[in-house]
From TrEMBL:
Catalyzes the ATP dependent decarboxylation of (R)-5-diphosphomevalonate to form isopentenyl diphosphate (IPP). Functions in the mevalonate (MVA) pathway leading to isopentenyl diphosphate (IPP), a key precursor for the biosynthesis of isoprenoids and sterol synthesis. It holds the Pfam family MDD_C. Its EC number is 4.1.1.33. One of its GO terms (molecular function) is diphosphomevalonate decarboxylase activity. NCBIfam families: mevDPdecarb. Belongs to the diphosphomevalonate decarboxylase family. Pathway: Steroid biosynthesis; cholesterol biosynthesis. This is Diphosphomevalonate decarboxylase. The gene is LOC106126741. Residues 11-175 form the Diphosphomevalonate decarboxylase-like N-terminal domain.
Length: 387
């Protein structure tokens, strides 16, 4: 096994501001509406995946966060088969290579399945690495989409739009970049981790139930999202934070309203999540303008978007209202000094119980996937992180 036969990629998390929820085709993972997201910096949150192949491997194998997992997941198999078919058509590798089994090792540096878009980063990583391993040329966002829908947005940095498309074969359901990671450098994100445990209702099951039972979802897809998608894309290009914040919060609220309109309802936000919403609205009211926007994916954790000049004051507010015993409460870009503390004692919401927020991830807009040289597999294709 030569080192060149191993490809390792890191890929970013993306957090949607216009949500993807519901599929028109389960197998091809075609959404019922467009979505828009922000790609976050890989130096703070990322998935890392190494892939290799060889004639000596007797079966396809995958390790996730140090644990060997079944390769029989239909989406995983579908992605590999699709890439091999493209490689055969393009004749990018020898025919014998197409018969070889693969070995995959993947790790996240953030909680998996806790509503932090772990599958998006993971599949964006996987398809980027496999595409390079098999030397194919194709739209990687399409390959990522058939693994995990929102993964197609993680193949680009900056601000990204996933086009739902109309074609039955999904050929026009692709992601495109609205603006790159350098476009709005003042934009920052604070992720408030309320829980890092696996959610009760998976996104896949929740979406299926919503499509089958929610009238609000139909209205959302037909009327709300098309308008919001255009408006927030324009707000991003103009760097209009007020409009961006308003649309982000309204869409998050409507998404969770759809979840409650689903039968049986799927509830992802907790009492702490709702308290964060209350706090952000109170803060914006005190400021007299929208300074911070919240959004919640299918989980209890809040992602706050704000401009960098607002970060010190908002972090002071969070630490005041959510007391902690965690000495490393703010991670990523870390804590920052300064900020306005004068209003804390007059803030209309009292401090909450200790340690109900585990930690805060301070991060920024980042780039798309990158090939790296530090592998998770050794020269024989064995996982380095498994005893």
């Amino acid at each position: 096994m030569d080192e060149m036969d191993c490809v390792t990629v890191i890929a970013p998390v993306n957090i949607a501001v216009i949500k993807y929820w519901g599929k028109r085709d389960e197998k091809l993972i075609l959404p019922i509406n467009d979505s828009v997201s922000v790609t976050l910096d890989t130096s703070i949150m990322c998935a890392k995946t190494s892939v290799c192949f060889g004639p000596e491997f007797t079966e396809n194998e995958i390790w996730l966060n140090g644990v060997k997992t079944s390769f029989s997941n239909p989406r995983l198999v579908n992605v590999l088969d699709k890439i091999k078919n493209i490689a055969a058509t393009q004749r990018s590798v020898d025919n014998a290579v197409l018969t070889w089994k693969v070995r995959v090792c993947s790790e996240n540096n953030f909680p998996t399945a806790a509503g932090l878009a772990s599958s998006a980063a993971g599949y964006a990583c996987l398809v980027t690495a496999l595409a390079k391993l098999y030397k194919i040329k194709t739209d990687v966002s399409v390959l990522a989409r058939i693994g995990s829908g929102s993964a197609c947005r993680s193949v680009f940095g900056g601000f990204v739009r996933w086009h739902a498309g109309v074609n039955a074969d999904g050929s026009d359901s692709i992601a495109t970049q609205i603006a790159d990671s350098t476009h709005w450098p003042e934009m920052k994100a604070l992720i408030l981790v309320v829980s890092d445990i696996k959610k009760h209702t998976s996104s896949t099951i929740g979406m299926m139930n919503s499509v089958n039972t929610s009238d609000l979802l139909k209205y959302r897809a037909k009327y709300s999202v098309p308008r919001r998608t255009e408006e927030i894309s324009e707000a991003i290009l103009k760097k209009d934070f007020t409009k961006f914040a308003e649309l982000t919060m309204k869409d998050s609220n409507q998404f969770h309203a759809v979840c409650l309109d689903t039968y049986p309802p799927c509830v992802y936000m907790t009492d702490v999540s709702h308290k964060i919403v209350e706090i952000i609205h109170a803060y914006n009211d005190m400021c007299g303008e929208l300074k911070v926007a919240y959004t919640f994916d299918a989980g209890p954790n809040a992602c706050l978007y704000l401009l960098d000049k607002e970060v010190p004051t908002v972090l002071n507010l969070i630490k005041h209202l959510f007391p902690t015993s965690n000495l490393d409460f703010v991670i990523g870009l870390g804590d920052v000094d300064g900020g306005d503390c004068k209003f804390l004692n007059s803030f209309p919401i009292q401090p909450q119980a200790k340690d109900i927020i585990k930690y805060v991830i301070h991060t920024k807009v980042g780039k798309g996937p990158e090939v790296v040289t530090s592998h998770l597999l050794d020269k024989k294709g064995n996982p380095l992180n498994v005893n």
